[in-house]
Amino acid sequence: MKPNSNFLLSNLIAHRGYHSEKDSIPENSLPAFIKAIENNYIIELDLHILKDGNVVVFHDDNLNRMTGLNKNIKDTTYDEIKDLRLKNTNNFIPLFEDVLNLVNGKVPIIVEFKYDVKAGILEKATMDILKNYNGKFVVKSFSPLSVLYIKKHYPDVIRGFLSSGMDSEKCFIKKWFLTSNFLIKFLNVDFLSYDINSLPNKNVEKFRKNHTVLGWTARNKDDFEKGKKYCDNLICENFDVILFS
To answer: What are the beta bridge partners of residue 192?
Structure first.
């Protein structure tokens, strides 16, 4: 039986952890997750699988922005990247297992599958790691194939679809398909994670009548106030600005 997903509404969601440039806390780092736990925020994080099968917490397909190494992360082994430092700090790219050991059920986790490898490879490796984890978690992806893999092989896992208005997509058919109510119904997801800048949206409003909508990413007061109108919870950065400015 699929667990209840009401915990997604228990507190604000820290986008890639509670990171802060001024405090030298990089995104998707252990200190960012520690700070989220200290504030009781839900943690949202990103996963990639390396060519040696290790699953790591990292957002970009390429390592350059965060580490200065211009190489695609899927083409590396953990031994090759474990000594890289994030944004000139002493923090490194963490293994997913190490993050789970740190969080240890203290707050819920939203796992985003990145999609630079064939659907199913990262998802299976991740679920193998999560099978002994007792904390609350959900999974999501921009890739319909990723969500379908979870639907087929792990139907009891709470799953979500990441989407937006896809204004930059030039192919009308692709744009229609990826933003259609048909796709949302077919994926049979428990929640949507939707771009605040693409709201309001009729399909999202319809979905929200019976499901949860999480807005991404609130980085300022305007984002935050808009997101509250159209979403059930918000994925946030710059908490000092959106909450206390």
So the answer is: 161, 213
